[in-house]
Amino acid sequence: MEYKVNKKVSIFSILVISILSTSFSASVMAASDDSLTVYSTRKEHLIKPLFDAFTNKTGIKVKYLTGKGGALIERIKLEGKRTKADLFMTVDAGNLWYAATQNLFQPVNSETIKNNIPNHLRDPANLWTGLSVRARTIIYSTDRVSPDELSTYQDLANQQWKGRLCLRTSKKVYTKSLVSSLIHHDGLEKTTEVVRGWVDNLAATPHAEDVHIMTSILAGQCDVGIVNSYYFGRMQAEEPNVALKLFWANQDSTGTHVNISGAGVTKHSKNPEDAIKLLEFLSSVEAQKIYVGLNKEYPASQKIKADNLIALWGDFNQDKMNLSVAGKNQADSVSLMQREGYK
Length: 343
Ligand code: FE
Description:
Layout: H1 11-20, E1 23-24, E2 36-40, H2 44-58, E3 62-66, H3 69-79, E4 87-91, H4 93-101, H5 111-116, E5 129-141, E6 165-166, H6 173-201, H7 210-218, E7 224-228, H8 229-238, E8 244-247, E9 258-265, H9 272-283, H10 285-295, E10 298-299, H11 308-311, H12 324-328, H13 330-339
Parallel strand pairs: 2-3, 2-4, 6-7
Antiparallel strand pairs: 1-3, 4-9, 5-7, 5-8, 5-9, 5-10
Helix pairs in contact: 1-3, 2-10, 6-13
């Protein structure tokens, strides 16, 4: 971890900063100027090309600090009015929603963003917006499963999948958001039955990473799982003939659960005007093209097409549930999964 310690930093702050264990771009601690600072849970290689394009276009420099979501949120809260952060950027609507409940953001009423990004991918109070989309859907072994056997997330709770299912841990926000969407569509009681069935059908203890779900299917430990589309995209880019395929879940009902990476302008931004410019830029066709090229994600803007590789997976209907619901139902989702022994 590298950062410059200025004399005013108290021992307490040093301790807190150490505990937060974020990685800093060294320039962040420099005296403030008219550049923007972004705190991001997305890694450098996924954000730098976007900021470079923005700087080329506007002349406004962008500094950034990357770290874990919980630590960055605590940091912004702790820094209060003195924060350098103009934008907070993270993945998953559940995390954006949580940041909003911690009073991190200010509302941004931008016609540009409203025109570029569909409603369900934005906070109803305009505190944050989605900037890229990932589908969380079914993945299956092309050796042992035929796509006619697949239909919905709920169906993976049926007997047919006993001992054949791999899932990600319930501690991951991706799982919480998916279960939140099921609660939204089906209610608590039915979702409880579904989660119970999933747990019964597990071939292995829930995995810590989506990638492990895919490697477990390839190793024959399980036949089906649920993953974020870009993890499959990355694997397929390396190994075009991998014996796995995505199946678009719930096409005859609610649509496939999607989630976002996104951002909002911080409440105490010193430069909200330029911060809004950056957020608007990130929603633009120019930036959306960069987004989809970087991480095998879908554009949040419907004005451009998906990257070549992921376009080959075919079109699908997205669940149009407003993604703020992923946050609102999160507590219910967590306690439901705990009750049913979903680890
Ligand atoms: Fe991820």
